[in-house]
Model the fold of this input.
Amino acid sequence: MLNDLAMGVRLAVGGGRNSRTTLVRLVLGTVGVGLAVWVLLVAAAIQPAMQAQSERVSARTPVNHEQLPGVDALEVARSATSFHGVLIERNFVRATGPNTPRMPGVDRLPGPGESVVSPALAKLLASPGSALLKPRLSEPIVGTIGQAGLSQPQELLAIIGTDTKFDQAVPAYRFGVPDLHSELPTQLVIILVVGLVTLLIPVFIFVASSARVAGAERDRRLAALRLVGAGARQVRRIAAAESLVSTVFGLLLGGGLFLLLRSSSADIVVANENFFPSDLTPPAWLVGSILVGVPVLALMTTQLALRSTVIEPLGVVRQAKPVTRRMLWRLVVIAVGVALLLVTDGEMADDTIEMLKIIGGSTLLLVGVPTLLPWVLERVVARFRGGGGPSFQLAMRRLQLDPGTPARVVGGLAVVLAGAVALQMVLMGQLNRFGAPPEGARDIDMSNMVFVDGPGKVPDDLPAAWAKVPGVTKTYAVSTLMATTGNDPGAVDAIIPITVADCANLRQAAAVSECADGDAFMAQGQDLIHPGAVLHLLNSAEPFDSYRTRPFTGTLRLPLAIQRISIGPDSYAFGGVLLTPGAVNASAPLDYRTAGVVVTDRANADAQEEVLNVADRHRDRLKVGRPGLVTLNDTAQMFLDLRKGLLTGSLFTLLVASVSLLVVALEQMRERRRAIAALSATGVPTSTLVRSLLWQNAIPMFVALVLAVATGVGLGLLVFRLMGLGFVVDWSTIGVMAATAAGLILVITTLTLPTLKSATHLNALRTE
Amino acid sequence: MTGDPLLSGVDLVKSFGQTKALDGARLDLRAGEVVAVMGPSGSGKSTLLHCLAGIIRPDGGTVRYDGRDLSSMSDTARSALRRSDFGFVFQFGQLVVELTCLENVALPLRLGGVRRREAERRARDWLDRLEVGDVARHRPSEISGGQGQRVAVARALVTRPRVIFADEPTGALDSLNGERVMTSLVDAAQQTGAAILLVTHEARVAAYSDREVVVRDGRSRQVDVVPAGQL
Amino acid sequence: MSIGNTLLGLLETGPRHGYDLKRAYDERFGQDRPLHYGQVYSTLSRLLRNGLVQESGVEPGGGPERKRYAITDAGVTNLEEWLATPEDPALYLQNTLYTKVVLALMSGRSAADVLDQQRSAHLRAMRELTKRKSSGDLADQLICDHALFHLEADLRWLELTAARLDELQRQVRP
Done:
């Protein structure tokens, strides 16, 4: 027994006449398993990494609602800025006494006029291109923020000591709130589970297909072993040992790749995510199951592959007419999957049993794709009776003879596709529900604008200072008020924005042409208010969401003469009233809020930075910055993040599946060298061979596409049902995915062409 | 047998890496004649055949076929020539395992643009002539070696080529089957007027030829036809 | 016939006594059947009569065993013709062929030519048989096949010998 295993190992590491092919086989198998192990380890490490990240973010969140005895509050004011579109977080801190709470990751709190920065920010500031950023971070750096204070290694964060009282400052008595990140909504859990299943199944398929690499050659070798007297069982053991060798090498390779990735993870940014090496630590039980599961899977595949071949001493007898593929059990797989999902209670998705049902159901449904595929493909090509051109005939006959191999090849791709279609559907549904604008709806590119927002009247110096910056094409700043027509602060009927600015700024902000101080303007069609009306003022200094909970701060009487102007949806004061300072007639001092826009020339990237520098003198009051992502509520944001993550994942899995496709395609080519050479010798043009190869890959791909889309939509519907939602099928996304898969086939066919060409060079004819 | 040769190779040189497979070989083939190329294994006889058939381009020397210089033709043109004017029978492996025997024989015609129905009719004719009509619907893996070679002969002849290149056509067969294949090949070639270049190391196979050429160490020795009277 | 030509071949390397000739012949070609003296002298006298050899000197003592013989120009021509003429592809002719090859090697002639000539003659015979076979009945075919297989065996021997000429050359002319 041990002897047989040793023999297998000896054969796998080769030597002898065929050492080159043995090596190729070993390498292909190793790379296959290695990639899979790597992906699995990364997948296992992602959750702990996200967890660690969110724990650190929670740990640095200031707590301001409970005053602690003996602790002096640390006032923390967030004033973010950006540099060439990249967000830079600045927290201004002001100690109110000697006993301020400790901030995580900060050894010594910076005193007034000092700063501590994250390593990435320090690097950015030290780089030659940062001259225009320096004015906003001019405080001398007295320390570095450690890992405990950073969400990710590349985070750009500065903590700046100040003795100015910032308007937006909140007192912190300690840092650290309980980490709530793990409490995900059940719908999110469902999506996550289905997503992971989708991403990991192709990886297992990949492991399986790499265990089969160069099968024909191995079979011949095993036949030779039987000739010298090895028994059928012995041969199986030898084959097992052989595949074990590449599996062990693969484990080493995968583990090595993972450690390599881990050690340099601080410098790698994918989809804005970026981790400390210590964050990427998969739990031990997962590592253990990977280390055991992958070799077991490889062994099982080898034994399964040997099942249909009888290795006789005088060669390999593949059952000449393979047993007609049975449909029943393949359908049972899918049926059980569907049934499991149907009996799952979506509301209870965080319950372990229900969760297992979801995992099992979606796994079975997706596994159904590669199991059903050979059968479907066989049925499809069996209808062929010999029509079409010679290249088509060659391809069809090849597929008839062996529909299993190509079906296995595209199977992995089909699973990714099916999963991606399902996920995409579900995520789109979720996003629509949470009211996030669909991708592409924000069709106005605002990256050349700077928005200004903050309590108080517009600072007198700003509009003029901006106008002087070279590259500024348009600028205005207005003071705004919020008013309502109703009498009850708890039940506000309609909010009327009121804009106060001089004529020059009004001309920029809205389509006001003739204007003198004392004039008032109102949009055409505005019928909620009328000239001379008295409006109740809301506390405009507070952020938007809190209006409704505040009492009125006073009243404002509108002038009797108000010009009607057309105010388009692109102008600032849409739907409101515009007043020149002379037209303001109020009962109390007004709390204005500043709003402004600066538009810069797109060709002049520095102009925006200068604008930000000019505005930074009011950082204790105004938020100045580029419009980022439209602010969504947290759940919608989470879905967006998730979608991004899953799409990145499926892209990667697609890549893995393509690599396995390429490996199998190349191997097939290698095994058919002689046949190709003979065909080419008799004058079959290479172009015919190429076309036949394309057909040979495209037909299974097409069948796989149809099956994958059907399964994907089916799975999507079932998951929608779980989440209690109506469904949307996003055909354009499905189209893009299908096109991507088709494109991949084309690329892979192209990549195998050199091998085909070299086979037609007929050296293959010489070696006998 | 006089007149210009149909196919001639002059001073052919071909190396594979360090080894010189051909070193100044020459050979003439006249229309309709059967020439055997003999020599020990490794002497370069297969390489000579590959050069003459335009499968590989010699490093030196010229191959002329029917007034055209093969060595200066493009790969595509040589492919087309092989398809239209030449037929091939190898020791094994030349039948496409996926296609039925009938489709295998019809393949060269279809590549030449003949419609499927017509191509398969002609293919069936040839299979019948070579007495393997009954395996037309079988795949190559389902028939015997001798039948397979006769299917290969049918495929080589179906385009009515002017030259048939046969490389150890009976190499994998027993004497009786080898004989049957050779008889079919030579008879059929005679009927269609095709010349045969026959590479073999077996004297009994070479005996089907009109004359022989011996290749030794990459050089060919044209063994002259001795007038019959001297025997 | 073949003994006469063989002796001529041996004499081509230099004049010899009858006794020397016998010894040289036995050593190289007479493995199973050494020559009798009588055979040697009767053959030599036939060659003398035909002018293919001549006496090149008599040593004191007299008697036929004291005569030295040398090859004449006519003898050389005769020998060359013989070497260049392939043997009739009959069965069991290795002995004659072997003799020819060795003599060719001894005299510095091309042994490969000898073999090629023979090979060509053999193939010609095989072609004839093959043709006869295709037109004959089964009995004819079987008879022809028998001959074909034997000729093929000869041809194989020819090929093998051709492949080992260098080795043989070293033994014959060290």
